[in-house]
Amino acid sequence: MKTKPVFVLNGPTLNLLGKREPHIYGRVTLKDIEKMVKARAKELSLGIDFRQSAREGELIEWILEARDKASGIIINAAAYSHTSIAILDALKAAELPVIEVHLSNIYKREAFRHHSHVSAAADGVIVGFGALGYVMAVDAMAALCASRSETQ
Ligand code: DQA
Prior knowledge:
Blueprint: E1 6-10, H1 22-25, H2 30-43, E2 48-52, H3 56-69, E3 72-76, H4 85-94, E4 98-102, E5 124-127, H5 132-151
Parallel strand pairs: 1-2, 1-3, 3-4, 4-5
Helix pairs in contact: 2-5, 3-4
The chain binds 1,3,4-trihydroxy-5-OXO-cyclohexanecarboxylic acid.
1,3,4-trihydroxy-5-OXO-cyclohexanecarboxylic acid binds at residues 13, 76, 78-79, 81, 102-104, 106, 113.
């Protein structure tokens, strides 16, 4: 049986990476991150389905699609991390390994970024490492999926 891909889901305004507040988010584009993620995943024999949306409902539909079609979810819900109980509920309902990523160190920034609803559904959280955080998440997801399949 072919292994299901890992969904890498990106929230609002991450499509503008490279141009958006480069002093915070760097010059790397989302396309660059997608390439880095896919290159690392290939080395680990993982498939990747990489998506971005500004719409909360679309992100939720993708999370619920992942329930059947993915082996895990890596998510940077961007600003929705701090506001969306609906995304939290969807992630819990997906019953999959979940890794939360933020490019910036949200704990060094404004107080309203210090709490993420997504974290309550995440197996692990990677913050502050820029684009590298996504690659770290792929490594961590490979380990999570391997330990899941050992116990199933
Ligand atoms: C972000 C941090 C969020 O607070 C912010 O709203 C984003 C990006 C990050 O990757 O650092 O859009 O998720």
